[in-house]
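User: Predict structure, ligand zinc ion.
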Amino acid sequence: MEPDVALDPERPDCTAIHLPCRHRFTALCLVYHWLLSENVRCPLCRAGPANGRLKRSLLPRHIRIPMKRQIFMTTPLPQKWFATHDIVCTLEGVDSHYKHTVRLECNPIESGFVLLSKDVTAIIMPVVMLQIVLRSPGHADLRFRSSCWFSAEGDFSVRVGISCITEGYYLIKKRGTLKAAFYVDSDFFKQMAWNHDNNLPPPPFDTSPYVIRDL
Ligand SMILES: [Zn+2]
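Assistant: Predicted complex:
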């Protein structure tokens, strides 16, 4: 959102806040700073109440939602988010059309997320399609783009299906077991998480075809 958006649409010329310490700030930047730092002190001289906090729910909606989204997108997802959501992978066989669902373990890494399934050896079919779904109580499931049909047969240790740099599906063979895994760029994941939490449709997916490679 632009810093010149009016705090109060009925008074569009009021775009600055003067604090009692005589420091002056762009209204929107100061409100965002206060939300982020969870206090209402002057960002320059730190004057202000010791335990004051901005009441998020009292902010006008046209500001509250974009600011909440900006904070969500620019800070790491808290553990609480993972505790209240399920990240599942559905596996559908080419000829069974029955979808198995496994809950994925999430392993955040610096530049993104690797989401590993539990062992899928017992349910794997010769040719499968994988799809990641975000699930939480009170919200509609939000689906990532599904993979293409993946052959789980043959001699390989890592088989990867990638269509774009933001996500990819993996099948990993190790000592007679098979794991399904999903890699997703953390910014894209957060966009999906935000849309899920706010009951919005998924953002537009990259529609490049999947390329299957053995590593
Ligand atoms: Zn000040």
